Amino acid sequence: MNHFSVNLMPSHFRDYNEHSSLPAHDLILRPLLLFATDCYVYGIQKNSELLQQCSHILISTRNKYKVDLNQEAIKGYEQLWNVTGWGRGSIVIVMGLEQFENLDILSYCYDPDILDNPNTGESIAAVRYSKDMAKQGKVALCLSASNGIEWMNIYASDDVLEKLYVRATKECLDSYSDTIYKPQKSKGNCLNNTFRYRKLCK
Fold first, then answer.
1. Residue 196 lies in a domain
2. Which domain of life does the UniProt lineage start with (predicted)?
3. In angstroms, what CA-CA distances link 72 with 45, 50, 69?
4. Which residues face 155 on adjacent strands?
5. Who contacts 147 (Cβ-Cβ below 8 Å, separation ≥6)?
6. In 10 A of CB 160, how many CB atoms?
7. How would you class 194 by CB atoms within 10 Å of its CB: exposed for 0-12, middle for 13-18, buried for 19 or more?
8. What does each C-alpha distance from 176 to 53, 88, 151, 180 come to in angstroms?
9. What is the sign, positive or negative, of the torsion defined by CA atoms of 166, 25, 175, 144?
């Protein structure tokens, strides 16, 4: 086992606007980016509208784009993280093991699983880079190219990964008992009009 996956939203929550702000942005992505050493986006077309919209935070490197972690990279750039259907390639976030272990993000993820084929829905170069980072003792988190922010694969060295997976099975939420993503019946002043945020809305 060189990876396992976790969902960043419950399995029943798939009908959302790719420009919308989602709970996973603040509960999962923001802590990850705060402690990340690197973050790379693969597979963005050079003349695409998405690249133009995100040009202020993306730095071109050889076959990918580096996210400028010194800037706000989520608010105003939701589409970069949410877009599905290979509107971009995979996104890889890298950090030290200690930093990842100290973060409380697994308790906001869902349904940990071990996939037979880690290349499914991912950029091959991103998978290769994630494995390389794992060999160096780091943790690499790979957001899906095909399904956007709906899931991420977690890569680490074999001995560490097994412990992380056990932790995930204990801490992660079950999609069927979710209380974070719920249909919002009234307009209110929540994050947007398609879901309710457990900690901000009652």
1. no
2. Bacteria
3. 22, 16, 7
4. 3, 140
5. 84, 121
6. 17
7. middle
8. 36, 29, 16, 11
9. negative
Residue 195 makes CB contacts below 8 A (sequence gap 6+) with 13, 16, 22, 23, 181, 182, 183, 184
> What's the first-to-final CA gap in the chain, in angstroms?
40
Which residues are CB-contacts of 93 (< 8 A; sequence separation ≥ 6)? 32, 33, 36, 38, 39, 140, 141, 143
Considering the domain boundaries, does residue 95 fall inside one? yes
Q: Check residue 173 and report its DSSP letter.
A: B
Number of domains in the chain: 1
**Nearest in space to 30 (alpha carbons), one of 64, 67, 65, 66:** 67
Sequence letter at residue 43? G
Domain region containing 144:
4-171
Q: Which two tokens stand for residue 131?
A: 């494995």
* Residue 200, domain member (yes or no): no
**Domain presence at residue 188:** no
Contacts for 135 with CB less than 8 Å, ≥ 6 apart: 157
